[in-house]
Design goal:
Blueprint: E1 8-14, H1 16-20, H2 24-34, E2 37-44, H3 48-54, H4 64-71, E3 76-83, H5 86-94, H6 107-111, E4 120-122, H7 126-136, H8 150-153
Antiparallel strand pairs: 1-3, 1-4, 2-3
Bound molecules: inosine-5'-diphosphate and magnesium ion.
């Protein structure tokens, strides 16, 4: 059994700056090598409707129009990663928003200098992980499968 009922999901977006800079593979690799399970992945263009919902907490900010323009400047890669307490694990891998101050070794710390062009989005809570995965993926785009690697990634009492 692989965390049935207690799995967390995180919605990760590879943002347009990373698409343009050819960083998709390196970003995906960070999550793979950590031992997380990829259960959904697609390239998609974002429109104002999904961005207004996704960034509703920033809708009143003066930078919102330029953020929306940036997020529409190319397709993004949307991913759903699954695992034990994965929401926090993914946030740690990504680093803080202001990339030029992000910890070296994190994705933003290693690949970015900007506050807005910061390579990735990651869900910030378990509840938002569920909401955001539901916003970006249809039910049949999220896959359930057994990852043999889990035998070695987790201890018996964590499975
Ligand atoms: P997060 O992506 O680290 O969760 P949020 O505060 O949720 O950070 O902001 C969402 C995204 O909005 C950021 O990743 C970044 O792209 C953009 N953003 C946040 N704050 C600023 C800002 O002060 N100026 C420009 N863009 C910003
Ligand atoms: Mg956020």
């Amino acid at each position: 059994m692989q965390f049935d009922g207690v799995n967390e999901k995180s919605l990760v977006l590879v943002k347009p700056d990373a698409i343009q800079r050819g960083l998709i593979g390196q970003v995906v690799s960070r999550f793979e090598r950590k031992g997380l399970k990829l259960v959904g992945m697609k390239m998609m263009g974002l429109d104002d409707e999904i961005l207004t919902a996704h960034y509703s907490h920033l809708a009143d900010k003066p930078f919102f129009p330029s953020l929306a323009k940036f997020m529409k400047s190319s397709p993004v890669i949307a991913m759903c990663w699954e695992g034990l307490e994965v929401v926090n694990a993914v946030r740690e891998l990504c680093g803080i928003t202001k990339a030029r101050e992000a910890e070296a070794g994190s994705i933003r710390g290693d690949f970015a200098m900007s506050v807005s062009c910061n390579v990735v989005h990651a869900s910030d809570s378990v509840e938002n992980g569920e909401i955001e995965v539901g916003r970006f993926f249809e039910d049949d785009e999220i896959h359930s499968y057994k990852k043999s690697e889990y035998e070695h990634v987790y201890a018996e009492d964590e499975k």
